[in-house]
Write a structure and sequence with these properties.
Oligomer: single chain
Shape: elongated
Helix content: 25-40%
Strand content: 25-35%
Strand order of the largest sheet: 7-6-1-23-20-25-18-17-16
Radius of gyration: 23 Å
Length: 424
């Protein structure tokens, strides 16, 4: 009997404290749609749905008539299904972790090391940095999604330092003068001035920072009550962060970093050393399979200010350059391909309009994982003994070169995402 090349995956849910609660969570809705044993608690947080081989939440291979096993074990037994290039380059491992995220409260201000730095951090501090891999990430919005991503242009930071007295107090006059004087300087000096100012905030006496933040929050709250304009203070984001992490110096990071608002289908790519934080919304996320995170605020977890400040990319960029544009293909279905400049992963988004009765997933040179977000149908393939029912939350594995035919309930549109290795 032929080895199955297309099969369902049962996937793990992570209940981190920052996740959305109950049925507000896209993670909970998708999981409960395909798993009758998964009962959504209206008071429980549901943060992430994991699709892959990560040992903290491995997907389970579910093939009718066969014993269920972790996907990592399946890949070990059938490494050819990864595809020859992926198998060789990643030493027989699936290189990516695919996720759905539902973000209620903000995640930490963080960055991820590049491969060489990750190996060094793991070697010197294995208790803090658990593996030697890099961790580039891509987020594709499912709902309106807000995050912080990359440093603002230096003129914007200088504007906030001049117009927000409490921010200037938290950073300190010396660093403020560096930023203000840097307008006529070359780009390398811009980056040095940005680094000095950001480090000044991160290393400033906590009592001074807390006092300045309290004063700013009180001012913005009073402005809001009097129907004043709080936009010059990025007031809505400031109040959200302070309510979640009162007194945290990371609240002032909104004046250094771009506030990025993604509409559904828009993406941002978080390359090595790029500071970022997710603030709210639901998204698809794909990342290299790693746990390496360096944090500096908005978190109760370990903060490594020195490592973060030394590794960050301090290049200022306008907010419109923080979004990662996909390559769009229009036919009877709309496919958007997000291929970041890393070999670990790429993601394709399939939007199938109502009235379409069928379409085909072409074979890739890499194994892939697919998830249905909207729509109904059935998937068939040469090695599928029986059609696989497709509905929101259904996740399935597709071996390299395998072709999948999908028949649709054409009264509804379908939205599906497919993750794969980008090495080929």
């Amino acid at each position: 009997m032929a080895v199955p090349q297309v099969f369902e995956l049962k996937c793990a849910v992570q209940q981190y404290a920052w996740g959305k609660i109950g049925q507000d969570s896209e993670v909970a809705r998708l999981k409960s749609s395909v798993d009758s044993t998964f009962k959504v608690d209206p008071e429980t947080t549901y943060a992430e749905l994991w699709m892959g081989t990560h040992p903290n939440g491995p997907s389970i291979v579910s093939i009718p008539g066969k014993e269920e096993i972790p996907l990592s074990e399946w890949v070990e037994k059938h490494p050819d299904q990864l595809g020859p290039e992926v198998r060789s380059f990643f030493k027989g491992n699936l290189p990516f972790l695919f996720k759905v995220l539902s973000v209620r409260t903000s995640l930490s201000i963080q960055a991820h090391p590049n491969k060489v730095h990750a190996e060094l951090l793991h070697k010197t501090h294995p208790d803090l940095y658990k593996d030697p891999n890099h961790k580039p990430e891509m987020a594709i919005a499912l709902t309106p999604f807000t995050g912080l991503c990359g440093f603002r242009p230096i003129k914007d930071v200088a504007h906030f330092l001049q117009s927000v007295d409490e921010f200037r107090e938290a950073v300190g006059e010396k660093a403020c003068k560096l930023i203000t004087a840097s307008h006529s300087m070359d780009m390398p000096l811009h980056r040095e001035a940005m680094k000095d100012s950001f480090m000044a905030l991160m290393q400033r006496d906590s009592k001074i920072v807390s006092r300045a933040l309290t004063a700013l929050v009180d001012k913005v709250k009073n402005l809001k009550k009097s129907s004043g304009n709080i936009k010059p203070y990025e007031g809505d984001v400031l109040l959200k962060l302070d309510s979640e992490f009162p007194g945290d110096r990371g609240c002032f990071a909104i004046y250094f970093l771009n506030i990025v608002n993604l509409e559904p289908g828009e993406a941002m790519f978080l390359e090595a050393n790029l500071p970022h934080a997710y603030l709210s919304g639901d998204c698809m996320e794909c990342m290299a399979c790693s746990d390496n995170v360096v944090r500096a605020g908005l978190t109760p977890k370990y903060i490594d200010v020195h490592t973060l400040c030394e590794m960050l990319d301090y290049t200022g960029r306008p907010v419109n350059r923080t979004k990662f544009l996909g390559i769009e293909s229009h036919s009877n279905i709309h496919i958007t391909i997000f291929n970041p400049p890393v070999p670990d992963f790429g993601v394709s988004k399939y939007e199938v309009p109502a009235g379409t009765s069928s379409f085909q997933l072409q074979g890739f040179e890499s194994a892939s994982i697919c998830i249905v977000v909207k729509g109904q149908g059935e998937a068939t393939s040469q090695t599928l003994a029986e059609p696989l029912k497709l509905q929101p939350g259904r996740v399935f594995f597709v071996a390299a070169e395998a072709v999948v035919n999908i028949a649709l309930d054409d009264s509804h549109p379908m939205l599906m995402f497919r993750a794969y290795s980008g090495v080929f």
